[in-house]
Write a structure and sequence with these properties.
Two copies of one chain form a homodimer.
Chain A lengths: L2 H20 L6 H7 L4 H7 L3 H25 L4 H18 L1 H9 L6 H27 L8 H13 L13 H16 L10
Amino acid sequence: MTTAAVREGEILAAAARLFREKGYHATSMQDLAEAMGMNRGSFYYYIRTKEDLLFRLMRQAIQAFIEAVTPIVEQPLDPREKLRRAIATHLRVLTGMMDAVAVFLHELKSLSPARQREIVALRDRYEACIRAILAEGAQAGVFRIESPKLAGFVVLAVMNWPYHWYSPDGELAPEELAGAFAHMLLRGFERRDGEEEGQ
Amino acid sequence: MTTAAVREGEILAAAARLFREKGYHATSMQDLAEAMGMNRGSFYYYIRTKEDLLFRLMRQAIQAFIEAVTPIVEQPLDPREKLRRAIATHLRVLTGMMDAVAVFLHELKSLSPARQREIVALRDRYEACIRAILAEGAQAGVFRIESPKLAGFVVLAVMNWPYHWYSPDGELAPEELAGAFAHMLLRGFERRDGEEEGQ
C-alpha cells in the first residue's frame, strides 16, 4: 500500500472508534483531529467534512466484505464449501474491523440521501453474493431452502451479530466462531436423505 | 392500564422514535417536548433528564421480552415447541416496538455505568431464558448442540436481526417470519435419527 493509503486506513480506523464510542453526532471535528494527532492543516487536507469521513469509512467497510467474499462465490466449489468459506471470510473481516461494522450498521441514517443510496447499493450487492450461494445450493439439490430471501437474512444475521458481543481479546478465535456457525447453518439448510430436491 | 401508564407508554414510544431517527445525543429536550406536544410544566413532570428517559425506555423494552417469553420456558412443553413459541413471541414483541429495540441495541453506551449494569443484567436474564430452552432440548436428547453458548447467539441473532430490515407495513407478517426462522433453526438443532444423544 502507498503511504497515503495507509494514512487513509489509520484515519478511518480512528474515526470508526470515535463514532462507535460517542456516536457520530456527538463526535466533533476537534475530537477527530485530537484522536488522529493531526494539526489543523493536515486534518482539513485529509477530511473535508465529518459526513465525508463517515461515508468513506462505510464504503471502505462494505467494500472489504465484497472484495473478500466475491471470489469465493465465483470458485468452482460445492455450495456447502462456498458457504463455509464465506462465513469464515466474513467473520475474519468483521472481527478485524468491529468499530467500522458497528458504525456501518448504526449510522446509515446520518448520511445524505444520495450517499445512503450508494452505500445501500453496495450492501445489496454483498447480500446478493450470499444469497447466490444459497440459490446455487438449492439449484444443485444440496440445500433445501423454502425462502431464499429469509434464509439469506438468517445467514447475514448469524454472521453479523458478533459485532454486538464478540471480543477479539476473548477466548474464541474468529475461525472457531465461523466453524460453529457454519455447522449449525449447514445442518439447517442441507437436504436430508429421503427429502425431495429443490426449494 | 391507568392513564399514567398509558401516558408513560406514549412518552417512551415518542422518545424511542426520535432517538432512533436522530440518535440519542443529537436529540434535544426541546425536540422531545415538541414531539410529545407537551408544555414545559408537564414535560419536566414526566421527564427529569434525557438519560432518565433513555433508561426507562430500555428497561421497558427488555422487560417486555422477559415478561412475554419467561412463561413459555416454564410451561410443560416439548423443547422444540418452546423454541417455536419463544421465537414467535420474540418477533411479535420486536415488531411491535422496532424503535425501542433499535435504541436498546445501539445506545447502551449512552447510559451511566450503573444503569448500563442494570440493563445488562436484565438482558442477561432474557438471554439465559433462551439458552435454558436449548439446554433443556439437549438434555432431553431432542437437540444436538455442540456449544450452547454459540447456539444461543445464533437464536438471538436470527430473532433480533429483523430490527435492521423488517417493515411492519411490508408483505411479511411477524408470524410468517417466526415460522420460517423456527423451521430453519430447528432443522439445525434437532438430533437426527442415528445420531448419538447429548451435546
